[in-house]
Structure formats: structure tokens, C-alpha cells
């Protein structure tokens, strides 16, 4: 670990970022060049004291998870992320299937604070969510291990299906299976996609039926209907921005202006504290919504 290089690199990258670059207000009395340490720490999900000690060449060696968080918080490119890992004494993570978010995607997310949006991998693992996305579908960034993948949860955990009306389930199953087939063809033998396919073939008869159809493309479920525990059913359009270099997609959910779903979407911020995975309340879905 090269403490001097690490400290200098973090300081230079922090000072190169402006508040507007990360969706923060500048304020009328701001004199700091670039971001403040406490701002960089908050963006990286760590304490100001911990981050400050790194810039002062003190403290323990950061773990790979902490380095990945700083790489996202400081909006580093892949090359800069790799450099950060190396000077901190770790091997750089593989770029294929990386959880690292491109700075361009992060800049877009910074400007979508009042919109449900999230970044997912080609295995439907959520890498980042806006607060309203978490209010809509649950805090998926808290998930770890194999259950990070919605493709796995869909076919193994009945609770994952509570988010969508039951009559929409077959279309989602068909689409998710085709998405996994695409990921498997891209990642190849020995990949995490292959491991997931083998697991689901052994545990889910439904998945096995859809898999045997060999669909490489299935109609996207759009508009999507979401069952919210307080607001009932919301019908939303899902706009997708692909980052083919890292096999990631930015999903942005919107409602047609003037519709009932648009009105419900405006009420979504008030429900942000609802626990993830909560089932819809029985009286939240009116007959007209079903």
C-alpha cells in the first residue's frame, strides 16, 4: 500500500469534482476548491473521519469494498478505479461483469433524484438506486450473494413476485428467462450466468419450461405494473439506457402525465420509509386497478 500516492490521488480527484458534478448545491459562500472531505465521504458511504485519515496518510488499509465505494463516490473511470486499487495494495477487480458504475451513468443518476431510476447488471443485480426507486421496488442494494439477482429471486422466492400483479407473472417469467439466456451467451461457459442457469434448471420447473423454448428475445413488459403497499398499482413506462461496455443498464420509470399512476408517482416520496418487500395492502388496490 502506497499511503502517499493514495492520499494524493484521493485529494486530487476530490478537488477535481464540483458540487454540480454530483448533484449537490454549491451554496453562496462556498470557498472550497472542489468537494469538501465530508461530501466525498458521504458520497462514498463512509465517515468523514475514516476518509480524512486516508487523505492524511493514516488509518488502516482500505478493503476492496471500501475502495469500490470511493471509486463510485469520486466518479472514477475504470482506469482510475484500477489505479486506486493498486496503490491501495489490492489487485484491480475484473472489468467483465464489474459492479463499477461509469462516471457518465453516475452523473445521470445525480440528476434523477426525484425520479425512480436504478442501474442493473445483465443478471438483474441492482448496483445503484435513487431513493424513489427504493420506495417503488424496495432497497435492492442491501441484498448480497446470489439473491442480488432478480432473475434468481423471481424463480426461487415467491415474495419477489409480490411486486407485480399476478396476471403479469407469465410475461415477466418469459422475459426474465430470455434475458438470462442472453447473459449466458455473452458470458459463456464457467460464468456466473451459467451457474445461475444450472441452479434454476434444478430448482424451478417453470424456468425449465421457459428455458426449453430457446427464446433469445422476448417482448419487454412495458408498461410495467407495480404493486405498492400504500399506493396500490402503478402503471409505469420503463426507459432503458444501455452501457454495453460493462453490460449495465439504467432503468428510468415514468408515468403518462395526467393519469392516475402519475398522481400516485407524485405521492411516492411520502412512502419512502416503507420496508422493502412489503406486500400490498388489501385495500390499496381498487377493482379498477386489477
Automatic annotation (TrEMBL):
UniProt GO molecular function: DNA binding
Task: State a single Pfam family of this protein.
Answer: MLTR_LBD
Q: Where is the region Disordered?
A: 270-290
Give the HTH cro/C1-type domain ranges.
33-81
The stretch of residues making up the signal peptide is: none
Q: What is this protein called?
A: XRE family transcriptional regulator
Q: Which InterPro entries match?
A: Cro/C1-type_HTH, Lambda_DNA-bd_dom_sf, MLTR_LBD
For this UniProt entry, which segments traverse the membrane? Answer: none
Amino acid at each position: 500500500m502506497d499511503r502517499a500516492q493514495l492520499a494524493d490521488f484521493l485529494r486530487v480527484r476530490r478537488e477535481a469534482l464540483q458540487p454540480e458534478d454530483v448533484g449537490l448545491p454549491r451554496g453562496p459562500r462556498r470557498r472550497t476548491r472542489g468537494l469538501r472531505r465530508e461530501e466525498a465521504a458521504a458520497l462514498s458511504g463512509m465517515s468523514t473521519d475514516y476518509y480524512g485519515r486516508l487523505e492524511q496518510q493514516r488509518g488502516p488499509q482500505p478493503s476492496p469494498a471500501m475502495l469500490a465505494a470511493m471509486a463510485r463516490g469520486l466518479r472514477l473511470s475504470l482506469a482510475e478505479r484500477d489505479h486506486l486499487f493498486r496503490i491501495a495494495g489490492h489487485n484491480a477487480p475484473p472489468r467483465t461483469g464489474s459492479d463499477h458504475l461509469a462516471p457518465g451513468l453516475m452523473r445521470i443518476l445525480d440528476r434523477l433524484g426525484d425520479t425512480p431510476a436504478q442501474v442493473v447488471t445483465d443478471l438483474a443485480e441492482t448496483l445503484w438506486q435513487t431513493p424513489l426507486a427504493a420506495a417503488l421496488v424496495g432497497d435492492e442494494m442491501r441484498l448480497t450473494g446470489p439473491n442480488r439477482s432478480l432473475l434468481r429471486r423471481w424463480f426461487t422466492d415467491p415474495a419477489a413476485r409480490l411486486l407485480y400483479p399476478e396476471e403479469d407473472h407469465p410475461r415477466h417469467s418469459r422475459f426474465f428467462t430470455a434475458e438470462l439466456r442472453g447473459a449466458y451467451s455473452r458470458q459463456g461457459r464457467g460464468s456466473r450466468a451459467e451457474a445461475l442457469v444450472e441452479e434454476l434448471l434444478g430448482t424451478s420447473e417453470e424456468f425449465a419450461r421457459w428455458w426449453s423454448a430457446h427464446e433469445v428475445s422476448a417482448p419487454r413488459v412495458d408498461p410495467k405494473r407495480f404493486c405498492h403497499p400504500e399506493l396500490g398499482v402503478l402503471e409505469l413506462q420503463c426507459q432503458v439506457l444501455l452501457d454495453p461496455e460493462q453490460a449495465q443498464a439504467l432503468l428510468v420509470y415514468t408515468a403518462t402525465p395526467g393519469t392516475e399512476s402519475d398522481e400516485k408517482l407524485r405521492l411516492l416520496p411520502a412512502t419512502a420509509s416503507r420496508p422493502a418487500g412489503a406486500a400490498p395492502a388489501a385495500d390499496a388496490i381498487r377493482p379498477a386497478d386489477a
